[in-house]
């Protein structure tokens, strides 16, 4: 990997585009290196993973609304939309499928200086691949680039520190992935990256307080903007430059300011792209920082059933990282995180709620664990209000560690019981993490798909999709057009402008 120094330059510097981060990203996107077998295998896993959570969300309001918008834009050749037959404009297919993938907060993650769900790259790249008649190998290469660029940006540039939503790294990575897919030249990809970044910077209010349905739409919007940005760039249209380094650009005014400097890692020319192997998926439908806590809570509830009764508990304190405490913990100072009438999206970002339900139930379900009846159960509300979080410097250090062997997303729980005794335990990573107790492998991704597709897809449709997905690198363009699912959807379609 090469480290690229990125800082703000006054307009008088006339920074050559060859020295700009967007151009260097574009160069990576044009380097047609081989994809090694381990990386190809993981791409297949993530395509299956994305589809599984999309299938599970087909009847949810956000997904129904996004899909209905796409259905108003039929197009040929076009792209497929999860759940329905036919083909639609690629930007609208990317939009609808992006919302379906993101709705349940249940696919892959990468956490470093910034947060990300790199699987969000797949819907837009797949949509363009189908529309333009590309092969499975082309799609594979595009996805590898999307993951590489997003993860490299996430390693170096923090957005959340300045309350900018993490999808600002997704617009450029998806544009780069589409550029690789289509075999575009450096200049075109460079212009597309600039537009994609410029149009996808937004605040983190979408993940604060009363979290709305827009949380699922934000990455889909970034993917849709990436498709449109590439289209405009291919037509010869240009973008604000330098988008990162300009004196009125992203770094100067939205991030660390005119004196900032970042070291962004990018592959050398000819270097195999392996960033996808640094990411990790979710076994449970919840914010990634909750994954390990769910596993620990389930274990504690089984070992110590008395912990499930609020009458036996004085307090529960989760000692954890800065991010977990301040974003999904009591440090956020969001009263909604303790509100039994809060939205699913809000409860998904409340570690006190998640820990309580996992402790009491010993399981975590993507539907039942968030139901209004479950959240309002009196004994749950009583126990939930005894759970707080606290930042622990060591867990914060491990969260930000660059050493995969010590990087951690969990923490230590201290439970004070009414009889004066204490229970103390800890967990570093989720069971499904590559270093966890039960690392996810192909069989787990396939089982996740079958589980979430049960009752939604016909068995033959489930097996057809799994067969295609597992042959991804060798799929013809015709076969790739079938990399979707059709379900018997009876949900009423909401009406809007279209």
UniProtKB/TrEMBL annotation:
InterPro entries, A to Z: MmgE/PrpD_sf, MmgE/PrpD_sf_1, MmgE/PrpD_sf_2, MmgE_PrpD, MmgE_PrpD_C, MmgE_PrpD_N
Pfam families named in the record: MmgE_PrpD_C, MmgE_PrpD_N
Top-rank lineage group of the source organism: Bacteria
EC class name: lyase
Keywords: Lyase
The MmgE/PrpD C-terminal domain, residue ranges: 284-471
Molecular function GO labels: 2-methylcitrate dehydratase activity
Catalytic activity: (2S,3S)-2-methylcitrate = 2-methyl-cis-aconitate + H2O
Known EC number: 4.2.1.79
Domain MmgE/PrpD N-terminal stretches: 19-262
Subunit and interaction comment: Monomer.
Family: Belongs to the PrpD family.
Name of the protein described by the UniProt record: 2-methylcitrate dehydratase
Native species: Cnuibacter physcomitrellae
